[in-house]
Amino acid sequence: MIVSIIGGTGPQGLGIAKRLAIEGVEVIVGSRKEEKALDIVANTKEELADYDLNMTGMANEDAAKAGNVLIITVPLVAQKPTIEGIKEFCKDKIVMDATVPLETAIGGKPSRFIDLMEGSAAERTASILEGTGAKVICAFCNISNSHLANIPEDIECDCLIAGDDNESKVIAAEIIDKIPGIKTVDCGILEKARIIEKITPLLIGLNIKYKSHYGGLRITGIPALDKE
Ligand SMILES: NC(=O)c1ccc[n+]([C@@H]2O[C@H](COP(=O)([O-])OP(=O)(O)OC[C@H]3O[C@@H](n4cnc5c(N)ncnc54)[C@H](OP(=O)(O)O)[C@@H]3O)[C@@H](O)[C@H]2O)c1
Question: What is the CA(225)–ligand 1 centre distance, in A?
Fold first, then answer.
């Protein structure tokens, strides 16, 4: 199983790439520029020399083609062109989307959300990928890059996910739950991304208010996702 991170050179994508690679997942870091991806992967391998990372860098299109599972970690402004650019390689694949529609996309505050015509960023991705058979899942929206970068500490947060295909959500959860401390919570159909994505500006606001980088979320009182 190869997991490709599209836009994997930023703090969110690289954080996910590092965490998964440490757990033995084969990871490709994607970028608009292959050279940038290769440089960042080389630096990452130096930084995490204690781990045997199976990680390489590629242009986003090549990463999308090579990956069995894709994770989208680009800013909202880049979402549409990026997804359109990899669309032909998404056929029947699991596509996790971490995009959060923050007001920063239009020069506003990171603690505020902007409403999208499609209802959520993940639904926007699904609408662009319509007809490809891609299984879009909202994921990683509530896990901060600070937590991801805080290696080797466990990430004591839940990863809320939503998507319309149950089998794909089980596979996604198996990948996400490899990261120590994280528990994946299946919130239901893709439309639930409208709620999940809105939690992120709330957490950012809390981080600002309490001068933290580690605001996170735990849902209590429900069983773990049934992966049988
Ligand atoms: N940061 C967090 O803590 C966090 C938490 C939850 C969710 N998210 C979401 O995850 C996504 C990524 O966050 P991030 O902080 O890692 O973002 P970022 O650093 O702004 O961007 C990630 C990567 O996207 C590519 N990119 C940037 N601008 C682009 C453009 N105009 N067109 C095409 N590609 C572009 C760049 O890669 P190349 O230059 O290599 O192509 C960049 O390294 C966002 O949607 C964010 O809302 C972030």
Answer: 28
pTM above 0.85, yes or no: yes
CA distances from 72 to 89, 94, 223 (A): 13, 11, 28
3-state SS, residue 161: strand
Cβ-proximal residues to 228 (8 Å cutoff; 6+ apart), any chain = none
Closest CA to 187 of 225, 227, 130, 220: 225
For tokens 């991304």, the residue is 193
Strands across the sheet containing 94-97: 55-59, 26-31, 2-6, 69-72, 94-97, 135-138, 158-163, 183-186
Which of the four pLDDT bands, split at 50, 70 and 90, describes residue 129? very high
Considering only the top CATH level, what class is 2-209? alpha beta
- Each residue of 19-28: pLDDT tens digit? 999 999 999 9
Entry field: residues in the chain: 228
Residues in contact with ligand 1 (CB, 6 Å cut-off):
7, 9-13, 31-32, 36, 73-78, 82, 98-100, 102, 141, 144-145, 200
Phi, psi of 163, deg, nearest 5: -175, 165
How many whole angstroms separate alpha carbon 206 and alpha carbon 215? Answer: 7
